[in-house]
Amino acid sequence: MTHIKALAIAVAALTSLAGPAFAQAGLPETGPDAQNERIDRFTADLVGDLLDTLGLRYSVGQGQYGEPAITVDGAQDVEATVPNIDGFEVQFFGCDADGRCDEMSLVSRYQPERPTSLTTVNRFNQGTRFRTAFTGTEGDLILSMDLSAVGGIGSQATMIMIAIYVYNMESFAQAIGYS
């Protein structure tokens, strides 16, 4: 099964299973008839609620310029709706004094034991959507996804994009031989 097909199946399962979890977390349910709350600015609290819904463990802090920052360090338990992962950062951009931000980036870093060819990284970039893999300045490999709330984005779409990123993390780790 291709990564894209597996991801599509996972997102479909996530959206059908997340409805009750959204209701329990006080968030809108998923599905065609569900209320889809419009997000005009990202906040650490809002993103934290979405991470909770996905079953991810995280901590909230501040970035180097005082903006909110979230560190995700894995799944909360075996009942999580996404695969267990090593972790990633949520970086916020275009923030006001109240911590409401226009954009956020999901970023994970990898230090494989053996060098990874740029052909492998480029092949991964060609085979999936919404995120970018590249080599960092210190030879590490980085996977990132940018999300913008400028003009508005639905809460369901935001949660699904975070889930897609987590599934892409697992696929990228496999592609580069990282375990």
Q: What is the gist of this entry?
A:
The chain is α+β, with helices and mostly antiparallel strands and 179 residues long. The protein is built from four helices and eight strands; from the N terminus they run αβαββββαβββα.
Structure description:
The chain has 179 residues and is of the alpha+beta class. It has one domain: Yope Regulator, Chain: A. The protein has helices spanning 3-24, 44-53, 118-127, 155-175, and strands at 38-39, 56-62, 68-75, 88-95, 101-110, 132-135, 141-148, 153-154. A 6-stranded antiparallel β-sheet has the order 2-3-4-5-7-6. A two-stranded antiparallel ribbon has the order 1-8. Strand 2 (56-62) and strand 3 (68-75) form a beta hairpin. Helix 1 (3-24) crosses helix 4 (155-175). It is globular, with a radius of gyration of 16 Å. Mean pLDDT is 80; it is low at 1-28.
List keywords for this structure.
single chain; alpha+beta; Yope Regulator, Chain: A; 6-stranded antiparallel β-sheet; two-stranded antiparallel ribbon; 4 helices
Q: Any low-confidence stretches, pLDDT <50, length ≥5?
A: 1-28
**The level-1 CATH class:** Alpha Beta
In CATH, the topology is named Yope Regulator, Chain: A
Going by helix content, strand content and strand pairing, the class is alpha+beta
Please provide the count of β strands: 8
Question: Could you tell me the strand content as a percent range?
Answer: 25-35%
How are the strands of the largest sheet arranged? 2-3-4-5-7-6
Terminal CA distance reads 21 Å
Q: Average the pLDDT over all residues and give the rounded result.
A: 80
- The global form is globular
Order of helices and strands: HEHEEEEHEEEH
Please bin the fraction of helical residues. Answer: 25-40%
Q: Total helix count? A: 4
Largest beta-sheet details: 6 strands, antiparallel
CATH architecture grouping: 2-Layer Sandwich
**Gyration radius, in Å:** 16 Å
Count of the separate structural domains: 1
